[in-house]
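Re: the multi-chain job from yesterday

Posting the exact lines I submitted so nobody has to dig through the queue logs.
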Amino acid sequence: DTEVTQTPKHLVMGMTNKKSLKCEQHMGHRAMYWYKQKAKKPPELMFVYSYEKLSINESVPSRFSPECPNSSLLNLHLHALQPEDSALYLCASSLSGWDRGNQPQHFGDGTRLSIL
Amino acid sequence: AQTVTQSQPEMSVQEAETVTLSCTYDTSESNYYLFWYKQPPSRQMILVIRQEAYKQQNATENRFSVNFQKAAKSFSLKISDSQLGDTAMYFCAFMTGANSKLTFGKGITLSVRP
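And the result, structure tokens for all chains:
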């Protein structure tokens, strides 16, 4: 069983829709991550929150908007997405903050997003 | 900048046999960590094994073990007694001690045949 929970598991949306992806962890982890993954490719880092503050934005288009309401919850708000945004979106968390690289990242099951 | 290379795109192994997945990396850092992640078709990325660069002893987790050759910058994963449930994509990943960024290799698709 994954300790990082992502909802929904699948999402189909039109290019004009607004939707949100949700990620939760209750392990007391201090860093949370959003990744985008295309089929048969490694995950690509999008955003990092460390101690509830945005630490890294890997030049992600503004149609993706992250939010960290509290230490256990991470959202990704989606608006006006393009067909090329169709992918698996993975959330991960790690015990240490972003500036301490000694703890593995633990991943959720992902949300499979399809843009019509 | 760090790079991770997995040169084999696919491998196949008979059930109950042993298979080794290769990974090499390049870094100028002295403090770093290496990981193998497994991603089955169910899509969750699962941590298989972790190796600290400062440890000479190779990490093991049940049927999974690594051969860590620091001088050669090599980090291969050995899977013993392969099981059908080992069928997955396997990613080698690197993390420096400075931050939590994971640098992934391209991955290798492993198929276990019954």
